[in-house]
Amino acid sequence: MIEEKLIPVIEQKLSEEGFEDCFIVDIIVSKNSKVVVYVDCESGVPIRKCVSISRRIEHYLDETLLLGEKYTLEVSSPGLDKPLVKRQYKKNIGRDLKVKLAENAKIKGTLIEVNEFGIVLEVSEKKSVKIIELKFEDILESKVIVKFNKKKK
Predict the structure, then answer these.
(1) Is the pTM of this model over 0.85?
(2) 26 and 86 Cβ atoms separated by less than 8 Å
């Protein structure tokens, strides 16, 4: 698979100075030779890092002709609509999450802790607050809940 061949190329770039806190979130290769690479960094993802990673991938693809001569390449940080990967939880402590569990159970709460086994959410229910611990293996998907503050007139 093309994705598997791109992983070491990207990881080599991410091992360089200035990229140590960066990691691969997802790689998508479509049938029309479009490659989309999502990376994230604990310190945020400035455009210069995306450009640098893109150049490394482009050089590899041009050298190997893995996708032929014509392809499209996008490198960006994942949007808020993308599910979180394990390494992203830590940087989202304090944010509200919508977590999907097995059998379509869903929980909304504030992420208050991340450990090696899972996450801890503070969930407000009616007039009480519950602390819920979830193991990573029980989580099907987690997304950050986007909140917009209304301006007061």
Answers:
(1) no
(2) no
